């Protein structure tokens, strides 16, 4: 699954990366984005691509209440074409969710230990998303929301969880966003685990478990990065952290030191 992520860059920078118009106007600096929060997504309508702020947790257009969105923050890749909640969005309303990292939890004894997952090259990546518009009868406004598509794990993620978000490669961004694609079935080949070796993961403070907590201290590593089976582990890295520690000045943009 994917239940939290970070968007550390301002939307103006995301607009440059995704060659889109910035219609969100966000400052970035978000280290604990959770379901029901607004977040930046990349959407395309005809030939216009934009960064917009949509609510995380898809609300189908036929829903009676916005509350249903709190349970629809992930969509299983295996059932997109048959799901009454997601199949229409998969056909016509796909988006990209730009993130600098996402969190996943592993059961370790009596605790659920959070891990931060990043690209090995330190660059941001795009998660496969779907979006929908819902008419709010109380305000007469159209509220737009999104969900993140998940699939089975690659070797690294299998050591942490049995699901992971779908990462869309740069060369597939245009195809995923194209609302006029005649046969979305051809996108099924994208709904697979990202290649092994492209991601890294490391333990972070359990302060991230509380959605009220935010700030760069949440992404500081606690110890050695997790290695996929058969890969060598690096030297242990231990940083004392009580959940309130400020970002060290030698950590550029919140990334762990090398």
Protein model, in words:
The chain is mainly beta. The protein has one domain: Alpha-Beta Complex (hypothetical protein yedk fold). The protein has 4 helices and 14 strands. A hairpin with a 2-residue loop joins strand 8 (101-108) and strand 9. The protein is globular, with a radius of gyration of 18 Å. The protein starts with a strand and ends in a 55-residue tail after the last strand. Mean pLDDT is 87; it is low at 231-258.
Q: What is the domain tally? A: 1
Helix proportion: under 10%
What is the CATH homologous superfamily assignment? SOS response associated peptidase-like
Using only C-alpha atoms, the radius of gyration works out to 18 Å
Structural category is: mainly beta
Strand content: 25-35%
Q: Give the mean pLDDT.
A: 87
**How would you sum up the global shape?**
globular
CATH class: Alpha Beta
**Unreliable stretches, pLDDT < 50, 5 or more residues?**
231-258
Straight-line N-to-C gap = 28 Å
- Compute the number of strand runs: 14
Topology:
Layout: E1 4-7, H1 11-17, E2 21-22, E3 30-33, E4 38-45, E5 48-56, E6 74-76, H2 87-92, E7 94-99, E8 101-108, E9 111-119, E10 125-136, E11 141-151, H3 155-158, E12 164-165, E13 167-168, H4 173-177, E14 199-203
Parallel strand pairs: 2-5, 5-11, 6-11
Antiparallel strand pairs: 1-3, 1-8, 4-5, 7-10, 8-9, 9-14, 10-11, 10-13, 11-12
């Amino acid at each position: 699954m994917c239940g939290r992520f970070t968007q550390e860059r301002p939307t103006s920078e995301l607009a440059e990366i995704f060659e889109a118009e910035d219609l969100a106007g966000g400052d970035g600096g978000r280290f604990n984005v959770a379901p029901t929060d607004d977040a930046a997504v990349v959407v395309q309508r005809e030939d216009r691509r934009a960064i917009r702020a949509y609510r995380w947790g898809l609300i189908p257009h036929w829903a009676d209440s916005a509350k249903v969105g709190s349970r629809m923050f992930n969509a299983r890749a295996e059932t997109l074409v048959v799901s009454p909640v997601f199949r229409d969005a998969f056909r016509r309303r796909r988006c990209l969710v730009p993130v600098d990292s996402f969190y996943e939890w592993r059961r370790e004894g009596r605790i659920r230990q959070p891990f931060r997952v990043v690209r090995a090259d330190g660059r941001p990546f795009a998660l496969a998303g779907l979006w929908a518009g819902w008419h709010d009868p109380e305000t007469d406004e159209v509220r737009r929301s999104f969900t993140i598509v998940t699939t089975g794990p690659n070797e690294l993620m299998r050591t942490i969880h049995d699901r992971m978000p779908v990462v869309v490669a740069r060369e597939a961004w245009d195809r995923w966003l194209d609302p006029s694609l005649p046969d979305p079935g051809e996108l099924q080949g994208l709904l697979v685990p990202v290649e092994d070796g492209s991601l890294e993961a490391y333990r972070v403070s359990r302060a991230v478990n509380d959605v009220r907590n935010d700030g760069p201290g949440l992404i500081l590593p606690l110890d050695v990065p997790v290695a996929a089976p058969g890969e060598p582990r690096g030297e242990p890295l231990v940083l004392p952290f009580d959940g309130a520690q400020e970002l060290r000045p030698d950590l550029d943009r919140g990334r762990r030191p090398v």
